[in-house]
Amino acid sequence: MISYLLNIVNSEFLGRGEVKIMRSIIKSKKGISPILATLLLIVIAVAAVIVTYAWVMTFTSSTTNQAGAILTVENVRFYTDTGTDYVEVVLRNSGTAAAKIAEVYAGTSSTALAPQILVTYDPNTQLVSEGSSLSIIIQYNWEEGTRYHFKIATEAGQTLPFSELA
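Predicted structure:
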């Protein structure tokens, strides 16, 4: 290998001064000192740790923000007011992020749920803040003794299916 490099150095492309410098570089047996090599390895290792830490923190923060809302059904009440049947569902958010209700479904079977149009919210923002509750009032014809199935969907795609006996 060295002889090959020396032949290149002796080629006609380089001048005399350049040939001497190239010969001295090729014949030199010196490398970097062990202290410098150790420091270089430490710097590379620290840089790798910093990059890994940044990636892990980004990944975990985005994952926990997506799953921040934890919705549970606190109460379901079937009642009639001035001849109209209603179902009131109280949701509680015990998570760390707010959730906005996008759609409410109801039916007599978990496989035949229909989206409900006559729905009111208290508060009317449809937003369940972290640590608070939301009352959903559905105008729905119900009969006592029948089991009804519900599904509440958030804008983030989270669904909360449950059933209740009237």
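Summary: The chain is about 30% helix and 35% strand.
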